[in-house]
Amino acid sequence: MTANNASDLPVVSDRLAKNAMRNVSERLIEMLLFAAAAVSVLTTIGIVYVLVSESIHFFQNVSIVDFLTDTQWTPLFDDAHFGIMVLVSGTLVSSFVALAVAIPMGTIIAIYLSEFANGKVREVAKPILELLGGIPTIVFGYFALLMVTPLLQKIFPELPGFSLLSAGLVMGIMIVPYIASLSEDAMRSVPMSLREGSYAMGSTRLHTAIHVVVPAAFSGLAASYILAISRAVGETMILAVAAGMQPNLTWNPMEPAATITSYIVQVALGDLPHGSIGYQTIFAAGLTLILITLAFNILGQWLRRKFRENY
Amino acid sequence: MQHAALTTEEIRALIAKGKMKDTIFKAVGLLCLAIGLLVIFLLVSDMVIRGSERLNLAFFTEFASRRAGQAGILSAWVGSLLVMTVTAFAAVPLGVAAGVYLEEYAKRNWITEIIEINITNLAAVPSIVYGLLSLGIFVYAFGFGQSILTAGLTLALLILPIVIVSTREAIRAIPAMIREGSMAVGATRWQTCRYHIIPYAMPGILTGVIIGLARAIGETAPIITIGALTFIAFLPPVPFTEVSPGVSAGLFDWLMSPFTVMPIQIFNWTSRPDPAFEVNAAAAGFVLMIMVLSMNAVAIWLRYKMRKNIKW
Lengths: 311, 312
Prior knowledge:
The complex is a heterodimer.
Chain A: H1 14-18, H2 20-61, H3 64-69, E1 73-74, E2 81-82, H4 84-116, H5 119-134, H6 137-155, H7 164-188, H8 192-200, H9 205-216, H10 218-234, H11 237-242, H12 260-269, H13 277-307
Antiparallel strand pairs in A: 1-2
Chain B: H1 8-51, H2 57-61, H3 74-105, H4 110-124, H5 127-141, H6 148-172, H7 176-184, H8 189-217, H9 221-225, E1 242-244, E2 247-248, H10 262-270, H11 276-309
Antiparallel strand pairs in B: 1-2
Helix pairs in contact in B: 1-11, 3-6, 3-8, 3-10, 4-6, 5-6, 6-8, 7-8, 8-11, 10-11
């Protein structure tokens, strides 16, 4: 029945009118659910607030120039130095070693699984990778200190008991599953038509994989590499256990050193009064860490957008 | 044309070289996978061999001690269990509610964009930063102190992105006809969610929660940062028992108690120069691995069962 004017519209029955309360409770529930979703925003705001406010206190006592250029990190000594480059060098060297292992190995595994492997191999490989990715990092730290370091010492007798090399290698193994699974997803989403065209021209599987599939999947590969870098830079326990916690400005992986993350752990293990300069250093270090991770993430976003292919 | 046409032998040689490169690469690929498998094997066998002498019932019922032979993981595994309970109670309602909101209620406006960007970013934040966040906010600003409650909330925030993403994936897998059928008989949005969407998404949500908890149980850095102790020789007070003459523990006193967790106990033992503690570290590491593996196995089994029961 068509309504020609308002009086033709059906009247809301009494029964439905009583359910007007429903609207109120529906709205309330929607607001509660929204609040839950907003917790993620609150968390980010909380992280930024905590890091920035404590760092502001810190930089009232230490100049930024000193922070960035001093070559010693001895915040708890009487003659305190606050050169963050000491910790950053440890972070960068260990991450570099880890990525030098993880990126080639992960990419090769991804290419193998997506282009070469048959179903049975894939069924065995996927659980292995998931298992590797599920091992707690403290167990990897144990592995690095008590198995990898003695092994490396047989090859390099002058290697000290704590070293960035040993920790970096194990960190690399830990990161391989991330790179392998994300890269493989990226490669599998490349349409078959590209591969078929390449095969039709007479190229081999390896040639197709390297010259057609990998460039086509590059934005996904770049995303996985950036995630791996973030993981490597933020990793704590493997380095805390196996690289020693001695701040040491070095670019040589065969030495022990502290990273930003292992320094924070070292401080947290001790006793620091709330508000002391030592307490504030961990937040300044954390801020540096977040800025480094942010820089890599922005680089990653730019890379993805630049190389994004639309099929 | 610059080249003369290739002879048949030359073509055959080119094809053979190409195929050899393929075979070499396949070998290299398998080798890389084998390295991964080797690492797992070496790790597990080392922990079993080195730690087997300490893996008896006393290990699970003894506190940590200065003497390696008597040190056990009682306070560690109890602490882990309690912290995981708090984490689950905090992360599941928050994560499921957030996932339901984003999938069922959210409009495509800038607020939703910001929330989604935040969730993606938080998944990439290093775990130690969560420790710093909790140190500043939960330990000092809220005054919860260095307690099980703080640890549970920290880990809940850490695994929140995992729970939210699995909730969303689980809800997306539900076909529209369920929603539409429910709306067609007059249910409100919340009634649809509560009686249809959430129950059908539950297996997927549970899988995600278990995977998140398996990750959380192995996290060390944030828990050290908020101040879990590395040497602890007592258990959190059991509710309604006597803690000192005439004083009995309240129902929630255990929440505010100092504590330790499994990964921290392993860290403490691994860091000691005394080789006798390596045995303990190996045994505890093995126990932790078993915990993590069984949680992952339960999650995989749940996912498998869920796929079997789907009737749409």
